[in-house]
Amino acid sequence: MGNSYYFRKIHSLLGVIPVGFFLIEHLLTNYEATKGPAAFVDQINWLNGLPLVLLLEIVGIWLPLLYHAVYGLYVAYQARNNVSSYGYFRNQMFMLQRVTGVLTFLFVAWHLFETRLQVALGNVAHEDLGRTMHDIATNPVIFTIYVIGVVSASFHFCNGIWSFLVSWGITVGPRAQRYSSIIWMALFVVMSVMFIMSLVAFTGTEFSVPVEAHSGH
To answer: 0.90 exceeded by the pTM?
Structure first.
């Protein structure tokens, strides 16, 4: 019981700080695509120019993400909805949190395989990630899957923040929790819209040509 409590606390904390930071950073980076290929490449190059970037990725992103994902799948497998304890709305949110957690895990693993792993293997240059995303976004089936993936990730993060604030004793009373729900669901909508706008931007023909074809690169 004690170990489970601390494992869940670590799982909750990692989902907010390093994993949540990774999601926000990913959102802002991809949103640069709405400004054109040059802006997107500039953001990619800035990120990869950070000192000790590989160490930062491993310690600050991949290991926390791995723990959060694996333990989250374990929690989802063991989860049982409890209508009598939580009521209809919160119980539905509880269900959606688990479902979107699984969908997000599968989506992130697939997305990393198509992008970050291909860069690591030398199959795709950082500067060509825009073209890679163009190929992904212009496939209607994959585009739909990506929309489901980014919406699931956004919901899982925002609803997870709500749960984090409750479990860590920050939003205690019903009123605080109600306002917290409104704030985080509003952020969920904003994040989802920004992610979808990014995907739509990648469908532009300007992303289908080498980055050198754009002025300044």
So the answer is: no
